[in-house]
Amino acid sequence: MFACNPLSFAWPTDAAHVWPMRNILHMAGVTETMQPKGYFYKGAYTTKPPFDVDLSYVKPDNCSWVYAKAIQGYSKVRTIKEN
Fold first, then answer.
1. Is residue 27 part of a domain?
2. How does residue 77 score in pLDDT terms, banded at 50, 70 and 90?
3. Which among 27, 28, 44, 52 is placed 20 to 30 Å from 34, CA to CA?
């Protein structure tokens, strides 16, 4: 079993395979210019939530995809609860 520091974290720009070896996903460091390259840019959602938006541009080869997947999962649950 892989032992890691309980406070170790992954960056959104890290390769996706890094995430299972970390305890925290620190969603900092992605700039607006990186969004077209396949990274989730949280700064685009400072005035509106990222729910019910197309996040398919986020590439599954980076850790920001983990965050985008969680948002999409919550969006589905949120839709079910509202109906």
1. yes
2. confident
3. 52
- Structural domains counted in the chain: 1
pLDDT for the residue 32: 96
Q: Report the C-alpha gap between 35 and 56 in whole angstroms.
A: 11
Helix (H) or strand (E) run with residue 10 in it: strand 9-10
What digits encode the pLDDT tens for the residues 48-60? 999 889 999 999 9
Residue 4 lies in a domain: no
Please give the model's pTM, rounded to 2 decimal places: 0.81
Other C-beta atoms closer than 10 Å to the C-beta of 49 total 11
User: Domain for residue 3, yes or no?
Assistant: no
CA-wise closest residue to 28 among 44, 10, 4: 10
SS3 (DSSP) at 24: strand
